[in-house]
């Protein structure tokens, strides 16, 4: 089953087209990595799926439902950004609970979800701290926790590890892979980092200048790149 279907999706800013009629089917339960150089349209594509950016043409469906006119808050997805976007004046606990409190969810259910997310991300000790008292890796865990508590049907990640130092990035890659294995939720993960793409994805879509060059498993892209761009970008010997 398809979790997300993009059909002929286009985006223009002030008459300049930056996404050129993308077709892409993301399967339910897969970890799809959208990879490509800076400026190729990855964030734009993700933001259109999230409903944070209007699409200029085409259709986006989440599951069976066409969401072109559905606001972001009603798309049943969670997005994690590079910049964490935590509320600085709130404790970690409040940061995690905030979106749920807004939904008027019963208190015991909020507490259950916060405790569960804290356990998965190993931030149980940090719940009473403020964001400024956290390291970069801890902040990113909280940002991921905030996405998890909503129990969405889809996770969107926009370069969530690119602010972390190299060692932590490798560690968080493993943690995200574990999270994916544990939750089994569909994930779309944007990065410009080929190593991240090759190690984390069940499938990779390679983007260049607003077009998808190739979609396939890491094995397929590495061994059978369709063109020189894909080969060079993926680091294939061919
Ligand atoms: P990526 O995430 O792959 O680095 P983006 O999706 O951010 O790329 O950007 C794709 C293209 O669209 C770039 O040329 C960028 O300059 C342009 N762009 C992105 N957002 C806007 C905007 N709000 N207004 C005008 N141009 C934009
Ligand atoms: Mg981007």
TrEMBL record:
The keyword Nucleotide-binding applies. It is found in: Cell inner membrane. Keywords: ATP-binding, Nucleotide-binding, Transport. One of its GO terms (cellular component) is ATP-binding cassette (ABC) transporter complex, substrate-binding subunit-containing. One of its GO terms (molecular function) is ATP hydrolysis activity. Residues 4-234 form the ABC transporter domain. It is a peripheral membrane protein. Belongs to the ABC transporter superfamily. This is ABC transporter ATP-binding protein.
């Amino acid at each position: 089953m398809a979790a997300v279907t993009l059909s002929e999706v286009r985006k223009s800013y002030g008459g300049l087209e930056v996404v050129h009629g993308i077709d892409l089917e993301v399967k339910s339960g897969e970890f799809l990595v959208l990879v490509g150089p800076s400026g190729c349209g990855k964030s734009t594509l993700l933001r259109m799926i999230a409903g944070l950016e209007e699409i200029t043409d085409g259709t986006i469906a989440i599951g069976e439902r066409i969401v072109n006119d559905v606001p972001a808050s009603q798309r049943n997805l969670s997005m994690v950004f590079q910049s964490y976007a935590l509320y600085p004046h709130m404790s970690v606990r409040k940061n995690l609970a905030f979106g749920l409190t807004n939904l008027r969810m019963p208190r015991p259910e909020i507490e259950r979800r916060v405790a569960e997310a804290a356990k998965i991300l190993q931030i149980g000790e940090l719940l009473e701290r403020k964001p400024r008292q956290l390291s970069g890796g801890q902040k990113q865990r909280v940002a991921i926790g905030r996405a998890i508590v909503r129990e969405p049907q889809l996770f969107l990640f926009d370069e969530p590890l690119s602010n972390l130092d190299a060692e932590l990035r490798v560690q968080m890659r493993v943690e995200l892979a574990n999270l994916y294995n544990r939750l089994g939720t569909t994930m779309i993960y944007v990065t410009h980092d080929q190593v991240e793409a090759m190690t984390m994805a069940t499938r990779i879509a390679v983007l260049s200048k607003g077009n998808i060059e190739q979609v396939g498993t890491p094995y397929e892209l590495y061994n059978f790149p369709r063109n020189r761009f894909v080969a060079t970008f993926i680091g294939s010997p061919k």
